[in-house]
Each structure stands twice: as C-alpha cells, then as structure tokens.
C-alpha cells in the first residue's frame, strides 16, 4: 500500500489488524459502537436496500404519483403551477418519512467508493451515528458480499432508483431532488459523494428542527437578472443588484414536514424537465458554463412557492498557497461553513479523488495546505467574487493536487488548514482513502463493475 511511511500509528494498526475493515478511529480510540453491530438479517437487509419502482409499497405509489403529475411535458416555463396542483400533498405521504439522516447519490466505480470514504470518515473520525442512505440507479452495479455487509455494519442503507425512470437520462444530477424526496427521512442532509463533513452535523439538524424549511450553501458564482426564469417565479430576488448569490447542491438540508415538501417536489419537476428549466435559469446575457445544472433549481423552487429558506455564508476555499503578489489560495476545494463560520464541509471542485486516480497514481497530495476566508462577506453579494486562474496555473495545480483552481478577487484571511482544524486533515484523509481504496472489498467491487460493463 502506498503512503505507508507517512501513515500515522493508528493507521498502521488498522492495516495490521484487517485487510478490509478499519478497527480504530483516526485518533487511535476503540471503534465506535456501530462498527460492532452484526449485519442485518437477509430479510431486513433486503427491505432496507431495495426500494424499486417494481415493488408495491408506499414509495412505489409515491413515485408513480409524482411521475404522473410530471406529464404532459411543459411547453412554457409557467406550467410548473399545473404540476403543483396535481402533485402529492404532505398530508398524503407524511407516514412514509421519519427522523433525520444523511443522503448521498453514488453508484458504480466512479462515485460509490468516494461516498464510502465520506461515510467512513463520518463514522470513524467524527463518530457520527446518524443513519446514512446511499442511493444509486438500477442500471449501476451495487455492492455485494463483503462490501454490502460492511455498509450494513456501518448503518448505511443502500437504496435503488429503478424502472424506466432510472434510464430516462444520462444527466445523473437530475435525480438529486428525487432521492432526497424518496429517502426515508423527514429531515435530510444531502451530500455529494465528494463532499466530506469535517464537523458533526448535529447542531445543523437541531437548528433545522427549530424554524427552517431548508438550508442552502452558496457557490462561487452568481445568478443574473436577465435570465428568463424570474418572470415566472415571482420576480428577480436580487433587488436592485444585477447579481444574486448562486447555490451549490453538494451540501443542502431540507425539512419535509416543516414546509419543504412542496418546493422539493417542484425542484424534482424542474430537473425532470431540465431541458427547459436549466436554460431558463442559467442562460443570462453574461453567464458562462460555470456552475450550471441542478443546483439553483432548489432555491428557484422555494422562491416560486414563496417558502422561506436560509442561505449560509459565502464559502471559503482550500488549496495551495500562491506566493506571487497578491498572496492567494488556489482553491481546488470549496470550503462550506456553519452558522458560526467554522469549516464544515470540504467539497472538491472538478477532478475528484476517484478510485481510478488513486490506482493510476495521479495524485500524492490533495493540495489542501491553506484556508482562505472572505474578510468582508457583504462584498460577495454584489458581484461575482471568483475567477479562474489562467491555464498555466490550472495545469500546475492539477499536477500537484486535485481539481481546477479558483481564487477570491476580494480580500481574504489566509491561514494554514492545520491551524484552522488543529490536525492534519490532508494526511488523515489520504490515509483513509488508502484504507478504503486498497481494501479487498473495494477491489472486488471495482472488478464487478468492469465485468458488468463488458
């Protein structure tokens, strides 16, 4: 295994004790109680992991009810209002959902290993015992054998979107609001497979329970006033400004019972008919290709139904330090913050820490040495504060780390990331990637995806 010389003593002990399962957390403490749980029985495990369109249950009926309401395909942007009148109401479906948990959407060799690394980090390092659901499409290979049992022991439910709907489009991010809506939880924290919590989310759920229908996190980019969607959803939300903060959907929270159910279904509708609505949101006069997709359909849906939501502080960035004046951090990772402006989530921007990158030795570092946070957040409300570096700098960064690079063109506070967190996050995370990606269970899973592809 690579990186063994630099591994911590706890990581070395993990490796010596098991080829597959880590047995200590990152601080060398005994494994948390959820790693001692026995695998669920076959009957229970099947019930937990198989929610397909062909199964006659409440979720099956909900999916068909929503899909029926999606038809006919809209020819005008304002036809979303017809869907809202036909869509299932919360009182009809509330018995299907309970409690709180974390949801990811990851399938196949491209994203499932990433999601597993994120989940193991939650369990081992943060000792977070919130239930986790990892969804995939029926067309994607799912975990079996050792890997399936490992997920079961970690209280990770493996869920499936099946039937014709799972084969409808190759744009996988259009399924994101669907898996949030179909998850068994009332209160959902959604994470992309390459978004990793570095702080326990318990306080976020407590705040969501108090008075919020949804919490969204800002992206680097901005929305523009001249996009055609605004005249159909209640008007431009940016007041007198030409710009309005864009949202990223690598992390978001929704409370279905608090008023988030109807806008969540409308967001699903926007993504089901993405050929119409994506252009309406993003094809402003000056908008480029950055940050397009499902992400702003969430805040647009909430605005359309006049349901209040909370938008978090502007993000920070994590990456290597550029010493040439002015000093900047080359942000290969978007760093989302909590209400106290503490680092909460690291989300890689472009080239991810994929299994294929690991085995081909494309990275030896994640390029996560420094943390840059805006000095004056209000400045980010008035203009696009992010700018791509020139191609030479992007190429240099990709050789030393992961992802394309963005930098703030506004004053920032710059600190070493280890100083911010009190430990070497990059070293700890690379050790964990090594444990998961070099394990027999992941290698068997990757082999099965190749066999299925052939």
UniProtKB/TrEMBL annotation:
Higher taxonomy: Eukaryota, Discoba, Euglenozoa, Euglenida, Spirocuta
Membrane topology of the entry: Single-pass membrane protein; Single-pass type II membrane protein
Keyword Membrane annotated: yes
GO BP: any one term: mannan biosynthetic process
* Family, as annotated: Belongs to the MNN1/MNT family.
What are the UniProt keywords, alphabetically? Golgi apparatus, Membrane, Signal-anchor, Transferase, Transmembrane, Transmembrane helix
PANTHER family (alphabetical): ALPHA-1,2-MANNOSYLTRANSFERASE MNN2
Q: Record the organism.
A: Eutreptiella gymnastica
Provide one Gene Ontology cellular component.
Golgi membrane
Q: What is this protein called?
A: Uncharacterized protein
- Which residue intervals are annotated with compositional bias (Polar residues) in the record? 1-15
Q: Which Pfam families match?
A: Mannosyl_trans3
Question: Where does it reside?
Answer: Endomembrane system; Golgi apparatus membrane; Membrane
Q: Where is this region: Disordered?
A: 1-47
Q: Which InterPro entries match?
A: Alpha_mannosyltransferase (IPR022751), Nucleotide-diphossugar_trans (IPR029044)
User: Which GO terms fall under molecular function for this chain's record?
Assistant: alpha-1,2-mannosyltransferase activity
């Amino acid at each position: 295994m690579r990186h063994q010389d630099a591994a911590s003593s706890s990581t070395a002990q993990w490796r010596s004790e098991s080829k597959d399962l880590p047995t200590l957390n990152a601080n060398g403490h005994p494994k948390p109680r959820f790693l001692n749980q026995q695998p669920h029985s076959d009957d229970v495990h099947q019930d937990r992991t198989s929610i397909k369109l062909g199964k006659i249950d409440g979720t099956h009926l909900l999916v068909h009810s929503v899909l029926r309401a999606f038809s006919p395909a809209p020819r005008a942007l304002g036809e979303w209002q017809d869907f809202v009148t036909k869509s299932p109401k919360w009182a009809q479906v509330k018995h299907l959902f309970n409690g709180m948990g974390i949801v990811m959407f990851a399938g196949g060799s491209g994203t499932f290993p990433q999601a597993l690394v994120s989940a193991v980090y939650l369990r081992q390092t943060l000792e977070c015992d919130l239930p986790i659901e990892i969804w995939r499409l029926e067309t994607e290979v799912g975990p079996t054998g050792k890997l399936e049992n490992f997920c079961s022991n970690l209280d990770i439910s493996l869920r499936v979107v099946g039937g014709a709907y799972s084969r409808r489009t190759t744009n996988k991010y259009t399924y994101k609001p669907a898996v949030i809506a179909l998850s068994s939880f009332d209160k959902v924290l959604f994470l992309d497979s390459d978004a990793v919590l570095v702080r326990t989310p318990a306080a976020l759920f407590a705040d969501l329970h108090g008075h919020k229908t949804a919490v969204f996190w800002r992206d680097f980019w901005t929305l523009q006033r001249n996009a055609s969607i605004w005249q159909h959803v209640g008007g431009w939300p940016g007041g007198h400004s030409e710009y309005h903060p864009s949202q990223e959907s690598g992390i978001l929270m929704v409370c279905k019972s608090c008023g988030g159910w109807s806008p969540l279904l409308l967001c699903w509708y926007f993504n089901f008919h993405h050929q119409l609505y994506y252009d309406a949101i993003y094809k402003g006069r000056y908008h480029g290709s950055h940050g397009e997709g499902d992400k702003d359909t969430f805040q647009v849906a909430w605005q359309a139904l006049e349901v209040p939501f909370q938008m978090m502080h502007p993000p920070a960035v994590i990456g290597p330090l550029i010493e040439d004046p002015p000093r900047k951090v080359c942000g290969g990772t978007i760093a989302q913050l909590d209400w106290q402006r503490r680092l909460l989530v690291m989300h890689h921007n472009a080239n991810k820490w994929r299994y294929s990158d690991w085995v081909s030795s494309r990275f030896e570092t994640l390029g996560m040495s420094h943390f840059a946070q805006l000095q004056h957040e209000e400045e980010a409300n008035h203009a696009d504060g992010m700018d791509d570096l020139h191609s030479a700098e992007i190429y240099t960064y990709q050789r030393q780390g992961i992802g394309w690079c963005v930098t703030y063109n506004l004053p920032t506070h710059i600190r070493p990331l280890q100083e911010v967190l009190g430990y070497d996050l990059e070293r700890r995370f690379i050790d964990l990637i090594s444990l998961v990606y070099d394990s027999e269970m992941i290698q068997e899973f990757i082999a099965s995806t190749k066999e299925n592809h052939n």
